[in-house]
Structure formats: structure tokens, C-alpha cells
Amino acid sequence: MSRPVRFNIHPIEAKISDAIGNAPAPEGYGGDGFFTARLSDVVGLARKNSLWPLPFATSCCGIEFMGTMGSHYDLSRFGSERVGFSPRQCDLLMVMGTIAKKMGPVLKQVYLQMAEPRWVIAVGACASSGGIFDTYSVLQGIDQVIPVDVYVPGCPPRPEAILDGFMKIQDLVGQESIRRRNGEQYKALLNGYGIE
Amino acid sequence: MAIDNQYLQIKLTEKFGDLVFNFEDSYGMLSFEAPKEQNLKVLQYLYDEPTLGFQFLTDLCAVNYPDDKGRELAVVYHLHNLQTNTRIRFKVFTSIENTDVFTASKLFSAADWMERETFDFYGVNFVGHHNLKRILNVDEMDYFPLRKEFPLEDQTRIDKDDEMFGRG
Questions:
Q1: Interchain pair B164, A102: CB under 8 A
Q2: Pick from B145, B161, B165: which is nearest to A136 by CB?
Q3: CA distances for A137 relative to A6, A118, A182, B134, B140, angstroms
């Protein structure tokens, strides 16, 4: 009687080229030993592939994020191996979970402590809109206190959704003009939140 | 051996007469009511009387009965005699216009934060409390959220984005 489990005794050798992806080079003009491109493209390329996330996890979406960080979904594939727990070192604030109104000033403080350029992603229904907590104690979306770049819907979102949101952030970072943070529009946005 | 509920009722009626009323036996636990001016006297008697000895305050909370005019807010004390493992529930009612109730925090230190919480959510003004301010909610809040005048989904609030709730 044959065994119910069939073993793969002729495995296909993994090719290293399948496992490694190179970030595509920005548009530019190159020749022997030189390459010219727009500075913002190069800076964007560097920034987007080395984002340091700061997890601000308050509830179940934070658990989902732990799954995202783990080896199975592996957020570090996207160049964010280094999850920082100091706002001063991080570029990307990932807010995951219900933010109570009492937590609002704390969140804002953490945001202010981050150095420019900084990005914010609101993961899950609660961080985006208050979610099911349509109540007196819960902040109805973190965009009431800080500007948000990407919202990830879901209650909680699956790791794939968090990764998708992260890649959206990467697109924003890669395409951002290096002048944006000094512009009037950006200043007006921050002033809208009472940030100097 | 728990103290008999009938004995408790007799002792309280002997001492306070008509000032204690609405005795109720709910699932074996005695509950009764007194005018709000009497709350400290009743608590003190339950504490000091050797055969009663309710010296532990398990919980202190409020209940809002919006339809009961003049008695809209109830302050409920849950007391426990740890030696005989007897529990008792004691209520005082107050109108919502004048919510002054004497503080029990001099008798029970545990009442300190519980009264702050009760003030925070129901706006009961505990007269004589040394630090009656909000404990759980944000300081800027200008209402008492657990009063029943606020519907769960309040349509008049401005800090909420209706579009997010599918009713934009």
C-alpha cells in the first residue's frame, strides 16, 4: 500500500534571482561610470526602501501588525526591517487601534517628536474613523489630531491589507518632491492641525 | 454564617424608623433606600454596629432614571461584611437639578476614586469630597456621558464624520 504522503524527491532548485528584487532605477541618463537623474527621484528611492516604522499599537490591529512583522508576511521585505520605538528616529507613524480621546494629545506629541519628513498610516477602522466605537470616549479618527497619508480599512485588516497600505506609503514617499515639506501648502496643512 | 436579611431590616427600622424604606430582597441580597440627607448616618450605623459590621465598600455607582421626576439619579452603595460574608445594597435618590450628596470618602477611603468616577459619568456632586474632578474622561468634556439624555448614536455631535458611518 502506498503511503498517503508523497515526498518531493526532485525539488526544483531555487534560483537566487527569483528571491531578490532590485528596486528599479529612476529615470535618468547613464553611460560608462556615470548616471544622472533627478535628485528627488534618487532621494525618494532611498527613502521609500528604508522606511523606519514606529508602531503605535493600542488594540487588535496591533496584533495583526505583529503578524505582518513576523516571518510569514515579513514587512522587512519592503526595506523596513528596523522597527523603531523612538519617534525621533522614525519616518512612518503606524497608528493601529482605537485611540481614546484621552490618548489624542499623546498621539499628537509622538507625531511632533518625529523629525521631518514623516508619514502617517492609519490602520484599521478605529484609527481611521472611530470604527464601531461611536461613543463619547473615542476619537472619531486620528485625522482629528494629526494629518494622515494612508488609511487601511478593515476590522482588523489582514496583514496583506497592511502591506498594501505600506506600499501605498512607499509610492507616496518615492514620488514626493523634495521641496514639498517647505511648501506653503504643507505649512497650511500643519497649521490646520495647530502645528507650527 | 451570613447575617439574616430579616434581622438587618429589623435593626435598621429600629434605628431609623420611617427613614429607611423600600426593603427588597433580590436574589438573597437585601437592598433598601433612605433620603439622601441620611446617607452618612446610615452608612456609619452599618459600619459601627457590632452585629452588622459592614466595613467594606465594594462598589459605589449611580443610576439614571430619567422618567422618575425628582428622583432621577440614584447613588448605590454596595457594602460587604467580610467576617460573615454578608452583602447589602443601599440607595439614595436625588433630583438631577440639585445633585448634592454627602461624600462617603471620610468613612471609606475606597469611595474617593469611586465618587470621582460617579461624578465624571453622572455629575453627582459629592459634598465634602476633597478632589472632585474628572477621573476617566478628558478634562475638557462639558457633559456627563452616562446620563440617559445622550443617545448612543448622537446625531448632533460635530466631532464625528458621518460619511464614515454610511450616512453622509
A1: no
A2: B145
A3: 57, 28, 36, 13, 12
What's the start-to-end Cα distance of chain A, in Å? 77
Q: Determine the residue among B139, B152, B164 to mutate to test chain A binding: the one whose Cβ has the most chain A Cβ atoms within 10 Å.
A: B164
Segments making up each domain of chain A, as ranges: 49-160+167-173+183-192
| A129-188 residues touching B, CB cutoff 8 A | 129-130, 134-137, 140-141, 144
Residues of B with CB under 8 A from a CB of A: 136-138, 141, 145, 150, 152-153, 159-161, 164-165
Residue B114 lies in a domain: yes
Contact B165 A129 (CB under 8 A): yes
Q: How far apart are CA B71 and CA A155, in angstroms?
A: 42
A184, A93 Cβ separation under 8 angstroms: no
Query: Could you list the pLDDT tens digit for every one of the 196 residues in chain A?
Result: 566 666 677 777 878 777 777 778 888 898 999 999 999 899 999 999 999 999 999 999 999 999 999 999 999 888 888 888 899 999 999 999 999 999 999 999 999 999 989 999 999 999 998 888 888 888 888 988 999 999 999 999 999 999 999 999 999 999 998 888 898 999 999 999 988 7
One of 3.40.50.12280, 2.30.40.10, 3.40.50.10580, 1.10.760.10 is the CATH number of A49-160+167-173+183-192, namely 3.40.50.12280
State ipTM: 0.73
Listed residue (A147, A123, A128) closest to A62, CA to CA: A123
- Distance (Å) from the alpha carbon of B138 to chain A's nearest alpha carbon: 5
Q: Which of A136, A140, A155 is the best substitution to test chain B (most B C-beta atoms within 10 A)?
A: A136
Tally of domains in chain B? 1
Dihedral sign computed on CA atoms, order B67, B69, B72, B74: negative
Residue identified by cell 460573615 is B84
Instruction: For residue A190, count other CB atoms closer than 10 A to its CB.
Output: 14
